[in-house]
Amino acid sequence: MNEVLEILKYTLPAIITGGTAYLLMDRMLSRKEKNTLLRLKLDGKKVTDPLRLQAIERLTLLMERISPASLVMRVPHQHLTSGQFHAELLRSIRNEYDHNITQQVYVSHQAWEAVKNAREETTKLINYAYSQLGNLEKGSDLAHVILEMTMNVEKLPTDVATFILREEARQIY
Fold this sequence. Notes:
This protein is mainly alpha-helical.
């Protein structure tokens, strides 16, 4: 019995010390791993955040450029029939969209869906305005109908998409 107590006097403190050392090392390594992951994530954000903001800026500009009022003012319509002007408006929307399609990689699914919806709805509005006139009217008549229709719309899809893009930019900072 005496020998067992002697052995316990030496082994019990060694077991306690070893267990404590193990727990402290485990916690320290766990914290170090978490800190390393956090640092990597922050370093990654330093690279991706500017790209995301640039994409949001470009998509916001896209929304401005394809908004019906801006589009009608920017695309020349003097000396064009309504059919020619209609084709030019649709070509301009398609070119602007195609030029910025890669920006979807940097924005949320919701933001990109809003951008796509704005393009589709703007195209529908222009097509509807064109269907009201016919092919042989003046391009300025089509421009007038489009502007009248936009005044009757409470919230343009391009405005909705711009709002969503702004909210996404706010979330970055």
